[in-house]
Amino acid sequence: xxxxxxxxxxxxxxxxxxxxxxxxxxxxxxxxxxxxxxxxxxxxxxxxxxxxxxxxxxxxxxxxxxxxxxxxxxxxxxxxxxxxxxxxxxxxxxxxxxxxxxxxxxxxxxxxxxxxxxxxxxxxxxxxxxxxxxxxxxxxxxxxxxxxxxxxxxxxxxxxxxxxxxxxxxxxxxxxxxxxxxxxxxxxxxxxxxxxxxxxxxxxxxxxxxxxxxxxxxxxxxxxxxxxxxxxxxxxxxxxxxxxxxxxxxxxxxxxxxxxxxxxxxxxxxxxxxxxxxxxxxxxxxxxxxxxxxxxxxx
Length: 299
Ligand code: PMP
Prior knowledge:
The protein is of the alpha+beta class. The chain is built from 7 helices and 16 strands.
């Protein structure tokens, strides 16, 4: 996929420059040691026709927290970066887009802390994801990183080698995506998404601790509250998950996407009849600021 062309503009350290002319230092600690923090954000053309960056504040606040977690200097405000994001979208004539800010390190081959950081904000077109196809998922042979080895709640680039390995393994084995367990053998998350399962009219999701606490996960919890769908955060095993009525992944890129099966065990409830499907619809409405009415009576 072409992420940019010779007209694409990126925000680079306070300036708007052409992507093809933008430079970074090849001696950066980020390139050599996987040491940077980033965000994955989406913007949508809202029902009123305007461009809306979904949960922009939450994403840039998390970027700042990720930088703090891994000792990277951070000298931007959320407001300033939100403004830069809207300006990047405008200059590239984008409405439905994926936005990727990365905070990266200067040239430094040692392991000492840096005195400065740099930032780039890139954006590219992303069509609204329909999410109708259900995923065939495989339990990964890779575990999520041990939280005593990494600041697992931070969105740091180095963590994503684990995600790449897991996702590539699943695809090599003919599946759509991987599911990773935590170091205690409980279900953790996907390579780039959080998990929920549905059983007997209630939703369950792993508690924070061994996962990246996603902004979409938080949105799903809000939607459950608004729609009065019961939801619980708890630890659970693969065996428990395989007895679910339905399962879905959620994340900024994937939005809410249902599963067909886990390790060839098919989830029995037709997707259209699940509460999970209701959440998927409500999410699709929320991101474009469209009012949502459930087809079932609220209790
Ligand atoms: N877990 C991991 C490992 C991720 O990379 C992502 C994507 N950022 C998520 C969960 C979902 O997070 P969010 O909803 O904030 O995109």
